Amino acid sequence: MKKTGRNQTKSRIVSAAWQLFYRYGYDNTTIDDIVEASNTSKGSFYHYFESKDALMGSLSYLFDEKYEELTESLDPQLDPIQKLIQMNQELFLMIENTVSVTLLSQLFSTQLVTKGEKHLLEPDRTYYRLLRQIAIEGQEQKLFREDLSVNDIMRAYAMFERGMMYDWCLAGGNYSLTQYSQQILPLYLQGLCQ
Prior knowledge:
Tetracycline Repressor, domain 2, 2 domains, 9 helices, 68% helix, globular
């Protein structure tokens, strides 16, 4: 999926910001640092974000970049359950390697108190489009329970992932998110299957 110039600029800003947040911490990263690392301008920054704080809700964009990569690389021979497991493992591995527990906690807190857009729940995200495609495929293959709609399956899976990330934050990241999910997700997905 080819991004437009405007989306590329926003994406560069978000990616640069989160890399800097991870490396130097949120408080030690300035807007000037973000502009320089993203090779954009302050005008571009303020076109997309009111402030540095507004970037806290943008982590979902970084997640969606990962999902766009996965959309192109997922093996079509995998069944829907295997695709969901691979999606989860790739995301959680990325989180463990590039997003600190503190930053992820701040994302959840901003999503809880925001009166505006809740990026994690935005239905047009690449995440939800990919989930919908996999859920439809699973229903067509009679893999998922017939009493669950595609939306039910998507919602259940998304809640599981958010719950895992939230718990990891509460525990201060004192266990491997990827490894724990590798044990628990297959058990959880059994409840969605016939």
